[in-house]
Amino acid sequence: MAVVTSTSKNAAGPITPGSILLGTTGDTLTYVPNQGDELVMYNTSAAAIVVTVDGANGTTVPVPGTAGATLSVAAGLAITVAANSFAYLNLDKASAFLQGVVAISAATGAAVRAAIVSQY
What we know:
Elements: E1 3-4, E2 6-8, E3 20-21, E4 28-29, E5 38-43, E6 49-55, E7 60-62, E8 70-72, E9 77-81, E10 86-90, E11 102-106, E12 112-118
Parallel strand pairs: 1-4, 2-12
Antiparallel strand pairs: 3-12, 4-11, 5-10, 5-12, 6-9, 6-11, 7-8
């Protein structure tokens, strides 16, 4: 059970973000709203892998511009990370999925590295 924590990119020189190797269950990430956090994932395998980010308190959210329609966020946000590639997620833009304790898991364990970089 590991935690993806944030590293500030507001530095005078290069930064070295801490990262974890995602498992299939048990990992979490730290999300602070409106901090410009960016989740960066790197798939080290030769096959695409789905990473799911799921806040424990996410249920439904209203859809702007509709007459009361809602969208379920209960299952979390699934992100496909292509083989031997990076994927990026602006956490503030996905905040509806990040309510409560946020679990992060990979469909295949020990193949995707994850790090969070923050503006602050």
